[in-house]
Specification:
Blueprint: H1 34-37, H2 44-54, H3 62-71, E1 82-89, E2 92-97, E3 101-105, E4 121-127, E5 130-135, H4 137-141, H5 151-156, E6 160-166, E7 169-175, E8 177-184, H6 198-201, E9 204-210, E10 213-218, H7 220-231
Parallel strand pairs: 2-10
Antiparallel strand pairs: 1-2, 1-8, 3-6, 4-5, 6-7, 9-10
Length: 232
Amino acid sequence: MLDPINTNHPPTRSVLSDCWNKIGVRGDGSCPELVRYIHCHNCPVYSSSAGTFLDRDLPQDHLAAWTRHFSQEKSVAKQTPLSVVLFRLGVEWFALPVTVFKEISELKPIHSLPHRQNHLVLGLINFRGELLICVSLSKMLGTEDAAEIKPEARHNAHPYLLIVSHGGHRSSFPVDEVGGIHHFNPKEIKKVPATVANARKSYTTGVLTWRDHTVGCLDAELLFSALGKGLS
């Protein structure tokens, strides 16, 4: 075992014998005692050297060396990038973790449900032979009454149907535009402005800036939990 701080001061009581690094298991293995002890850890010479190492006199600058060691600025571990899918509802941009998405599809016919009273449910869609509930995230987040989007934005928009899965339940919701998958550093997330509507603010953990747009980062747990309760 070596001193974690190299002070270049040899022990003053005795000189350590590191035969294990020369003829022992870390050396050429020529030590005849290996036949008896198998490993240097079992040899009394190794144990004796460890005791000598622990009993040695401390160097004069021992405290100063450790002070320098702990005063060094710690390196901060790199944070894992945040991978999200960006989409637009009306004039508002939102982001959800990429892990909740199963597929981004072209819009499909939505079959309305008779006597439907739940305003969140738009109907059912047939996705690869599976019937999925299609919900209105716009109604849930309160974006339907937002201001009219600019004509050029509407011209470039391409609506999609997003297939999501959370807690073992699959569902879908239409969006006005998809910005694709993007990766952000968690440090880029800022606090939610006070001007954000309460309906959106309750499900938003922070905001990101993307192409001059303010993107609301939605909390998937809160959003889908509330959606599940709304559908029950």
